[in-house]
Design brief:
Strand order of the largest sheet: 1-7-6-5-4-2-3
CATH superfamily of the largest domain: Type I PLP-dependent aspartate aminotransferase-like (Major domain)
Low-confidence stretches: none
Helix content: 25-40%
Structural class: alpha/beta
Number of domains: 2
Radius of gyration: 25 Å
Strand content: 5-15%
Length: 459
């Protein structure tokens, strides 16, 4: 076949290519599409435009889009603004990682395997667990896969989920479990504290419950105070205890493995991954360690070994339980790839931060969040926090002495160039007048001043 330059083909070159593949027109490429589904008129698009004109048009469109820090973001709720050291992007963009992020012949990709092994090791250190996989898509898919794993291991049907868990996590779990005939049952939260109602959780426990899922801190940012008691109660009923985490909180909060979590999942986006308009992110998945239990984990697990006859270290995929690698009926997941490049970024971020750095980060986030909550409440127009409980990073607030929907506050801030006040009414009808605010180490004094000014101007 003739070779062509990178420029668009002219009519002569187009005819050459059609002849080469044995057809007479471009329409022949779509001959298998039924005629009733084929447009009878050309698509109404502007143009043609030159490359320069297209670039100018797109630049004008994008000029109206603002992101953090130009428009400070206090939204949270699953994706958060954080400071990312420049070295993280530099490491992840190296071709050794960037082009080999999902090795299908792993033995020749020792660098990627070592990076993923280090990621797994750091996740285990963070969560207090014995084993971690080389990542899932995001927190919702990790939570859903954990629920399905619990159903397989326990041979039970139902999963209790704290209603104070993130909406997306709950909905994805419902979707995954409905496909295998299982169901999600909600555990309510206390209307004063925002914490999971442990008495109601115990009442809902039965011989059909495979697992209980709670988040620490929960979707409201509230720190659950009874996780040890929850774990003991769940285990006494023969069920598994699954905990969802925002990983930077583990610089202060106790690792879930230390208070009885069987499975730990979470969102790795805070660990050196940009917000990127909502993705890609990183699903953390870890478990307590006995071999039969770990064998039911989805995804890939990287292990460390030594070369036969020497003490040279080597890295291998010790478990590939997805359907591309083993017989479909024995697979634990049909996730086709994972977020291994994001896991490399998380590993680089955690290595740069170190244990002391993570503790300092957690303290800074806590201090900043409490400072902003106090400043919001000082003006007298808002009650912050709305729930009477300790919180980390995220907190709820509401308008005081007047009816103001969370969505109205959200819109008022957006019109003033501030992204914040995630409306809780979107997820909880009973909290229509409540909004969520998120504060991290990435927020500086000028960001807070803009937020407070916008709140003061809100109707």
């Amino acid at each position: 076949m003739k070779s062509y330059s990178h420029l668009l083909p002219n009519e002569a070159s187009l005819q050459d290519m059609l002849k080469e593949i044995g057809i007479s027109s471009l329409d022949d490429l779509y001959s298998d599409i039924p005629a009733e589904y084929v447009l009878k008129a050309p698509v109404d698009v502007p143009g043609p435009l030159t490359q320069m004109e297209v670039e100018r048009h797109m630049a004008q469109k994008l000029a109206s889009v603002s992101s953090h820090p130009e428009s400070p973001c206090f939204l949270g709720g699953g994706v958060w603004p954080h400071y990312i050291p420049a070295a993280v992007g530099l490491i992840a963009s190296r071709s050794e990682f960037y082009t080999a992020y999902t090795p299908y012949q792993p033995e020749i990709s020792q660098g990627v395997l070592q990076a993923l092994f280090e990621y797994q090791s750091m996740v285990c250190d963070l969560t207090g667990t014995d084993a971690a996989n080389a990542s899932m898509y995001d927190w919702p898919t990790a939570a859903a896969e954990a629920a399905r794993m619990a159903v397989r291991v326990s041979r039970r049907k139902d999963v209790l989920v704290a209603s104070s868990a993130g909406f997306e996590r709950r909905k994805v779990m419902e979707t995954y479990l409905s496909a295998i005939g299982s169901r999600v049952r909600q555990v309510p939260f206390d209307g004063r504290t925002g914490l999971t109602d442990i008495a109601e959780m115990e009442r809902l426990m039965s011989e059909d419950v495979a697992a209980v899922y709670v988040e620490q801190p929960n979707f409201f940012g509230a720190v659950e105070t009874s996780v040890r008691e929850m774990a003991d109660m769940v285990h006494s009923k023969g069920s598994l205890f699954i905990v969802g985490v925002e990983p930077t909180s583990l610089g202060l909060l106790r690792p879930p493995g230390e208070y009885g979590a069987d499975l730990v999942v979470g969102e790795g986006q805070p660990l050196g991954i940009p917000m990127n308009y909502g993705g890609p992110s990183l699903g953390i998945f870890a478990a307590r360690g006995d071999l039969a239990f770990i064998r039911q984990m989805p995804g890939r697990i990287i292990g460390q070994t030594t070369e036969k006859g020497t003490d040279r270290k080597g890295y291998v995929m010790v478990l590939q339980s997805r359907e591309q690698h083993i017989r479909r009926e024995k697979a634990t997941s049909n996730i086709c790839t994972n977020q291994a490049l994001m896991a490399v970024m998380a590993a680089a971020y955690l290595a740069l931060l170190g244990p002391d750095g993570l503790r300092r980060l957690s303290r800074t986030i806590t201090s900043n969040a409490h400072h902003v909550a106090k400043r919001i409440g000082e003006g007298g127009r808002y009650a912050a926090p709305f729930f009477d409980s300790e919180f980390y990073c995220d907190f709820t607030f509401s308008a005081r002495g007047r009816v103001a929907k969370g969505s109205e506050i959200h819109s008022a801030l957006a019109s003033r160039g501030v992204h914040g006040a995630l409306p809780m009414g979107w997820f909880y009808p009973e909290l229509e007048d409540v909004a969520l605010m998120s504060v991290t180490e990435a927020h500086v004094a000028s960001d807070v001043d803009r937020l407070l000014s916008a709140l003061a101007e809100a109707p």
